[in-house]
Amino acid sequence: MFRETDSPYFSLSEVRFLSSLTGLISDGLRRALLLDDACADRADTGMLVLDPDDGVSLANREAEQWIDELGIGERAGTRLPLVIRSVAGQARAIAGRAEGIADVRLARARVRTQTGRWVIVRASLLGEGLLAPVAVLLEAARPAEMAPLLADMYGLTQRERQVTELVAQGLPTSQIANRLHLATYTVQDHLKSIFAKSGTGSRGDLVARLFFDQRATSLTALSAVPLHNSSQGA
Question: Which is nearest to 219 in space by CA: 173, 167, 175?
Fold first, then answer.
């Protein structure tokens, strides 16, 4: 799905073919979350410090392991996986837009490695100015961070996500109704739909399915960065 700048544009038939497959591909990726060890914890945290040209100034052993697992593709001169370079560039862009205004956001992406793990890549500038070095952290995606993707897979509506968030926070039906300005029976209807879509039969089952470590995360906030393809040679 990616081409070099000197390659011809996609033909109309190729665009139609890819468009016809997007639903199947996205559904397959979501369902794969339940079929592998994507939510397995990994304690190792990799750390990189990049210079303005994305050269590696410092790196710990764990970072090198993550780089090997992500893969750098077959493009000549490539030193780092695309997702690391992309997140580093995002960190510089955030700093550039801030223009002296404090901005505590981190550049972030979630990507699947060649072994099927999901890793979170975060980056931020160490200092001021676009020539400042960039710190990059790589760590395994925690189960709670995968909950939004699971919610997508189950097809939860925006309102159902809100109800699920409050269920995960331990609120009873009456408090959920008050918080969302809904009738109690409406919340109960939403819960029935959520249970049916997720294949669960109780609040406890639902929380265990979506938040394996019992910590709620936002299902309604916008994602920081879309998923990246870890294959660099495509």
Answer: 167
Q: What is the pLDDT of residue 217?
A: 47
Check if the beta carbon of residue 116 is closer than 8 Å to that of residue 18: no
Tokens at residue 163, please?
A: 């109800």
Tokens of 181: 């300005």
Kindly tell me the sign of the dihedral angle through the C-alpha atoms of 173, 175, 176, 178.
positive
pTM: 0.55
pLDDT range class, residue 218, cuts 50, 70, 90: low
Distance CA 174, CA 165 (A): 15
Closest C-alpha among 78, 91, 89, 171 to residue 125? 91
Question: What would the pLDDT profile of 42-66 be if each residue is shown by its tens digit?
Answer: 557 899 999 988 899 999 999 999 9
Range with lowest mean pLDDT among 63-67, 115-119, 208-212:
208-212
Neighbours of 149 (CB within 10 A): 19
Return phi, psi of residue 112, to 5°: -95, 135
Half-sphere exposure of 90 (CA within 13 A, CB side): 18
Written as six digits, the tokens of 89 are 């560039």
In 33-157, where does DSSP find H-type helix? 61-70, 82-98, 147-154
Helix, strand, coil % in the chain, rounded to nearest 5:
45, 15, 45
Residue 144 DSSP class: G
- 19 vs 51: CA distance, rounded Å: 39
